[in-house]
Amino acid sequence: MKREKRTTKLNHRGEDIRKEYKIDYSKSRPNRFAQIAQEEPLVVMVDADLAQVFRTSEAVNQALRALITAIPDTSIKRINR
């Protein structure tokens, strides 16, 4: 029996990967999660010791806004709220 010629390479996990994938963009659809991502807030994980100090998202936001006011204007662009 002859071995079949392999057209793809194996990656470090032993899985087949191709150098290039041909994608038919005419069959693509809009991202169904885009609207959800715009409506829901960004989630950030904090360490346990910080979670004990800042128990609510309002406390975290207040502390971060206070920190922003302490930073000189030249280092960041401020967003007016």
Which short descriptors sum up this protein?
single chain; mainly alpha; two-stranded antiparallel ribbon; 81 residues
Concise description?
This protein has 81 residues and is mainly α.
Please characterize this protein's 3D structure.
With 81 residues, the chain is mostly helical. It has a domain at 47-74. It is 32% helix and 5% strand. It is built from three helices and two strands. It has helices at 34-39, 48-53, 57-70; strands at residues 9-10, 16-17. Strands 1-2 form a two-stranded antiparallel ribbon. Strand 1 (9-10) and strand 2 form a beta hairpin. The termini are far apart. The model has no long low-confidence stretch (mean pLDDT 80).
What is the strand and helix layout of this fold?
Layout: E1 9-10, E2 16-17, H1 34-39, H2 48-53, H3 57-70
Antiparallel strand pairs: 1-2
Number of helices: 3
- Major sheet strand order: 1-2
How would you describe the shape? elongated
Q: Could you state the oligomeric state of the chains shown?
A: single chain
Radius of gyration: 24 Å
Low-pLDDT sequence parts: none
**N/C terminus separation:** 72 Å
Strand content: under 5%
Helix content: 25-40%
Name the structural class.
mainly alpha
Largest sheet: 2 strands, antiparallel
